[in-house]
Amino acid sequence: MRLNRYLAAAGVASRRKCDELIAAGRVTINGRVCTNFSAQPTERDHVKVDNKLVHIERALTIALHKPAGFVSTRSDPNARDTIFDLLPPKFPRLFNIGRLDAQSEGLLLLTNDGDLAQRLTHPRFKIEKEYEVTLDRQWNREHAEKLLRGIFLDGQRAQIARLHSMGPTRLRVVLRQGIKQQIRRMLYAAGYEVKRLVRIRIGNLRLGDLPRGEWRALTKSEIVNLSQSQNKPRGRDSR
């Protein structure tokens, strides 16, 4: 197993981030700095990152129903509650795949599988994410075309892939991008404030009836299906 995969499997970070750690000389094998990306440590080797011993833990991917008020990070300088406060203290070290902002809710994945994380976050795969959105006022369907066509955020075109009205102030929104606070910012540009945002699906994995604040381990078949998720072209829904 190549060094970056070893580190990712140990829950250090995604493979891309592990490449950066190796290149920066922050990884040692048996006391010697290793910048060789082809190195393949064995179980008998002592691998350290920033002088801290790392080892491969059992593979684990979980689905978490993130409540509002929790930040998607391991620690917070403002002492806010984090998603890791919702997990058992002796859990394997996990990192979250993507984020939900503090006030958003719903499905969040955490894993120590760097390959899965890369698969689900790489822009090339355009993994769909579906949300239920509650607005501060009645939705005007005339704004749909603008959001489907896209607006510029952070120097790139932000687009909503599909949009469906569920009631006077409720929408169902599908994204294939991961721009920071994309839905909130796009709807704000159209004159709306998002009062509630819940992610209900990532790829072909749904939040279902998982209680708020609770988690569950994904089955092997769910992980296989999730890793094979990819966008299939569909017509735009702007009702």
Topology of helices and strands:
Elements lengths: L2 H7 L5 H9 L3 E3 L2 E2 L13 E3 L2 E3 L6 E6 L28 E3 L7 E7 L2 H8 L7 E7 L8 H6 L1 E3 L2 E3 L3 E6 L2 E6 L6 H8 L4 E9 L2 E2 L8 E3 L2 H8 L12
Parallel strand pairs: 7-13
Antiparallel strand pairs: 1-2, 1-3, 3-4, 5-7, 5-15, 6-7, 8-12, 8-13, 9-10, 11-12, 13-14
What can you see in these coordinates?
- The protein is an alpha+beta fold and 239 residues long.
- It is built from 6 helices and 15 strands.
- The protein has helices spanning 3-9, 15-23, 114-121, 144-149, 182-189, 220-227, and strands at residues 27-29, 32-33, 47-49, 52-54, 61-66, 95-97, 105-111, 129-135, 151-153, 156-158, 162-167, 170-175, 194-202, 205-206, 215-217.
Any key phrases for this structure?
239 residues; alpha+beta; nine-stranded mixed β-sheet; four-stranded antiparallel β-sheet; 15 strands
Question: Based on CA inertia axes, which overall geometry fits?
Answer: elongated
List low-pLDDT spans.
none
* Cα end-to-end separation: 49 Å
> Percent helix among the residues?
10-25%
**What is the ordering of alpha helices and beta strands?**
HHEEEEEEEHEHEEEEHEEEH
Instruction: Indicate the structural class.
Output: alpha+beta
Share of residues in strands: 25-35%
How many extended strands? 15
The count of helical stretches stands at 6
- Largest beta-sheet details: 9 strands, mixed
Task: Determine Rg (CA atoms, Å).
Answer: 20 Å
The overall average pLDDT, rounded, is 90
